[in-house]
Specification:
- The protein is of the alpha+beta class and about 120 residues long.
- The protein has a domain of about 70 residues.
- It contains two helices and two strands.
- It has a two-stranded antiparallel ribbon.
- The longest helix has 30 residues.
- It starts with about 25 loop residues before the first strand and ends in an 8-residue tail after the last strand.
- The N terminus is likely disordered.
Length: about 120
């Protein structure tokens, strides 16, 4: 990765309920925003995707005797993430081949909801 000075990855910390009010729990957090070289874009985005694949793989190990629907959901999500990884890799290779940079904007949209009783 390039040095920190050139690295345009922005990970921002937000107080999710800065107003103290819970009447509007919807929040958006900017996770990634900026102009990236293909190498930096690959490092940031593939790291996120790989982490999510690892998360769902660990969930599968923990759910071996669990709910079949949850297991299927994790398996499907892993496959979706693997497809996204291939698509992202192709975009990075195209950008590198064409001497292009990548503009990336990624937000986390968070909504709170009441837990459902099991």
């Amino acid at each position: 990765m390039s040095n920190q000075k050139d690295f345009k990855f922005k990970l921002k910390k937000y107080n999710l309920f800065s107003s103290g009010s819970k009447t509007n729990p919807d929040e958006t957090i900017k996770l990634v925003e900026g102009l990236f070289s293909p190498q930096d874009a690959a490092e940031v985005l593939l790291s996120l995707i790989n982490y999510k694949i690892k998360f769902h793989s660990l969930q599968l190990l923990n759910l071996q005797n669990g709910c079949e629907t949850t297991i299927e959901s994790s398996e499907e999500r892993i496959e979706e993430l693997k497809k996204a990884k291939v698509k992202l890799t192709n975009l990075v290779l195209d950008a590198r081949k064409n001497n292009q940079e990548m503009i990336i904007q990624s937000d986390l949209n968070i909504t709170l909801q009441s837990r459902q009783n099991n």
